[in-house]
Amino acid sequence: MGSIIDRLQQFIEAYGLNNNSLTVKAGLSVGLLGQAIKSRKGLHSDTIQKILNTYPEVSAEWFVMGRGRMLRDGPSVLIAAEPHSPYGQSREEIIEAAKEAARIAAREELAALQGRKRQSPVAVSDNGVGATKRDAGE
Q1: How does DSSP assign the chain, residue by residue?
Q2: Which residues contact 21 (CB under 8 A, 6 or more apart)?
Q3: What is the CATH number of the domain that holds 37?
Q4: Structural domain of residue 94, as residue ranges?
Q5: According to the model, what pLDDT value does residue 84 have?
Q6: Pairwise pLDDT comparison (104 vs 67), residue with the higher score
Q7: Chain centroid to CA 23: how far?
Q8: 137: in domain
């Protein structure tokens, strides 16, 4: 699913945020997100922690590793009492939009993987890392 920066941008878009609004809500340093997106070098652990503490419904595994879905399931997710966002949508509408964005991204990723599979056969090792059949010694 790409890099953590790709997932950060997907999250920002799904929640109807921008770099500044996320910076303010999560208590981040001004310009930090813009610089991270521009340089595409990733995020520091304290930045990730602040984002995930601010949005506990976001799956840490998805955000950091790109595995699973954007939003966690179950009653363990505590959503802050914020009846309406500044964008005119309720939190539930934003969450539903984020779920839909994650579904679309998953479909696009699957289509891309299927396209690559047709072009270059891949052997998957026990640790889940892919290599071309040539690399795998076949």
Answers
A1: ---HHHHHHHHHHHTT--HHHHHHHHTPPTTHHHHHHHHT----HHHHHHHHHH-TTB-HHHHHH--S-SB--STT------S--TTS--HHHHHHHHHHHHHHHHHHHHHHHHHHHHHS-EEE-TTS-EEETTTTT-
A2: 86
A3: 1.10.260.40
A4: 4-132
A5: 44
A6: 67
A7: 16
A8: no
The pair of structure tokens assigned to 31 is 């310009």
- Quick check: is 138 in a domain? no
pLDDT tens track for 17-76: 999 999 999 999 999 999 999 998 889 999 999 999 999 889 999 999 888 888 887 544
Q: How many domains does the chain have?
A: 1
| φ and ψ at residue 54, rounded to 5 degrees | -75, -35
Q: Which two tokens stand for residue 98?
A: 């984020």
The verdict on residue 74 lying in a domain is: yes
- Tell me if 126 is assigned to some domain: yes
CA atoms within 13 A on the CB side of 99: 10
